[in-house]
Amino acid sequence: MGLSQYLWGPHSRDGVCAALIVGLLDQASKLWLFFAYGLAAKSPVKVLPVMDLVLTWNKGISYGLFQQDSEFGQWALFGVKIAATIFLWAWLSQAGTRLTALALGLIIGGALGNAVDRLAHGAVMDFVHLHTPGYGFNWYVFNLSDTAIVAGVALLLYESLRGDRAAKAP
User: Fold this and answer.
1) Domain boundaries, the chain
2) 74 burial type by CB count under 10 A (0-12 exposed, 13-18 middle, 19+ buried)
3) At what angle do helices 98-121 and 12-31 cross, to 10 degrees?
4) How far, in Å, CA of 101 to CA of 168, rounded?
5) Is there a contact between 160 and 91 (Cβ–Cβ < 8 Å)?
6) pLDDT by residue (tens digit) across 110-139?
7) Among this protein's residues, is 14 annotated catalytic?
């Protein structure tokens, strides 16, 4: 198998398109909320009884795990994201179905969207806060990239449960 087969496969275009759409929408939403809407000055903003827009800067990974305040720690997390993206790209090039490629594209686009934040701001901008007033439930604050990553993982799990057409890692 040549190097090109490790970089591009029959469904790679679908995954790359999904990744680009997610990355662009994620960055557009963050830029608009931060600069045009001025979320920093208005936060929190009630959108629905169970949802607010709240500006937070996550210096860790998903759900605020592994918070890193040092420059070395931030670069280490960035390196982990790049390594994960390379692994996912290799998996994408071997994707046997369009659904697998789209799921991997969602995950890659989400990882890259958050990586852009980490490079530009030293932290990831999160802004959606789900909660249940009166019941004491507060979900983590997240962004579009996080949603795409969760959706991509859910699609991979769904496909793995379909049996013979399961998503296979390289």
Assistant:
1) 3-125+141-160
2) middle
3) 30
4) 11
5) no
6) 999 998 998 899 889 999 999 998 888 888
7) no
Two structure tokens written together for 6: 């490790």
The one-letter amino acid at 87: F
pLDDT over threshold 90, residue 165 = no
Q: Residues, the chain, total?
A: 170
Catalytic residue of the set 14, 26, 117, 146: 146
Catalytic residue among 26, 69, 126, 164: 126
What pLDDT is recorded for position 75? 76
Task: Tell me the pLDDT tens digit for each residue of 135-154.
Answer: 888 888 999 999 999 999 99
146 is annotated as an active-site residue:
yes
Is a pLDDT exceeding 90 seen at residue 69?
no
Q: Which of 77-86, 93-102, 113-122 is the least confident region?
A: 77-86
Q: What are phi and psi of 26, to 5 degrees?
A: -60, -50
2 φψ region: left (φ > 0), alpha (ψ -120 to 50), beta (else): beta
